[in-house]
């Protein structure tokens, strides 16, 4: 079974050659794999990954993801490979209760603190049923509340690092274009515990949302 990086490169080579020309084909799943048309080779590969990835943590880096996309690998396959390296709880399909609170996050963006590390500049991100609410510790005028169904994308902004990128920011984008971003107060020192906790929770509580990673050279 290939390791993560080798698996990514092998998938890219497979995509370039239409899934053929493999000297020693990987064992295929015993269950049926359906051919569904133009995207069938890639969808079949995704189905294969779901069967065999239990023993493979691909842990795709940003360059590997870009290589796969350049090779023509569909997002379905890439997402399956990314999920293969995630903790079991994040991919089990079992939703957790939609009630959580993340205290101590710092909201960043236009008009908000970016370089500060003071706990006074933080607030609380609260999930209560279908509502996602921000309570600013200093200025109630900066509070907001949105419906979870209005969230279009959840993302991490991650600084490029050898092997695995360092994700220092958690955020989401609404269907109307608003963007909300949060970091740990000590993000300049590489702290990201709250960011990772919020990301993991949203993956579990809202598995149908689109999740992405934005790779940057620096924040």
Give the key terms:
28% helix; 8 strands; 2 domains; single chain; alpha+beta; 219 residues; 8-stranded mixed beta sheet
Explain this structure:
The structure is a single chain. The chain has 2 domains: 4-85, no CATH class; 99-216, PH-domain like, CATH 2.30.29.30. 28% of the residues lie in helices and 26% in strands. The chain has 6 helices and 8 strands. An 8-stranded mixed beta sheet has the order 4-3-2-1-7-6-5-8, covered by helices on one side. Helix 1 (4-16) runs parallel beside helix 3 (62-70). Residues 28-44, 47-55, 88-92 and 115-119 have low confidence and may be disordered.
Looking at this structure, what is the CATH superfamily of the largest domain? Answer: Pleckstrin-homology domain (PH domain)/Phosphotyrosine-binding domain (PTB)
Rg over C-alpha atoms, rounded to the nearest angstrom: 19 Å
Shape: globular
* CATH topology-level name of the largest domain: PH-domain like
Secondary-structure element order, N to C = HHHHHEEEEEEEHE
| The level-1 CATH class of the largest domain | Mainly Beta
Spatial strand sequence of the major β-sheet: 4-3-2-1-7-6-5-8
* Count of domain modules: 2
Structural class based on helices, strands and sheet pairing: alpha+beta
């Amino acid at each position: 079974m290939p390791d993560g990086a080798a698996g990514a490169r092998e998938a890219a080579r497979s995509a370039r050659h239409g899934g053929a020309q493999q000297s020693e084909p990987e064992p295929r799943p015993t269950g049926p794999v359906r051919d569904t048309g133009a995207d069938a080779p890639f969808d079949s590969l995704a189905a294969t990954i779901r069967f065999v990835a239990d023993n493979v943590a691909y842990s795709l880096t940003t360059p590997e993801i870009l290589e796969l996309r350049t090779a023509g690998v569909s997002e379905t396959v890439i997402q399956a490979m990314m999920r293969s390296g995630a903790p079991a709880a994040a991919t089990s399909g079992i939703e957790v209760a939609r009630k959580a609170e993340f205290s101590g996050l710092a909201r960043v963006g236009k008009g908000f603190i970016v370089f500060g590390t003071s706990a006074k500049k933080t607030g609380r991100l609260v999930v209560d049923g279908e509502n996602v609410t921000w309570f600013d510790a200093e200025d109630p005028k900066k509070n907001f509340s949105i419906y979870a169904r209005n969230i279009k994308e959840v993302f991490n902004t991650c600084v490029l690092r050898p092997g695995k990128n360092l994700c220092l920011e958690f955020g989401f984008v609404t269907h109307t274009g608003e963007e909300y971003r949060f970091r740990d107060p000590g993000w300049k020192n590489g702290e990201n515990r709250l960011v990772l906790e919020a990301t993991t929770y949203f993956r579990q509580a809202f598995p149908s949302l689109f999740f992405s990673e934005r790779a940057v050279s620096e924040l």
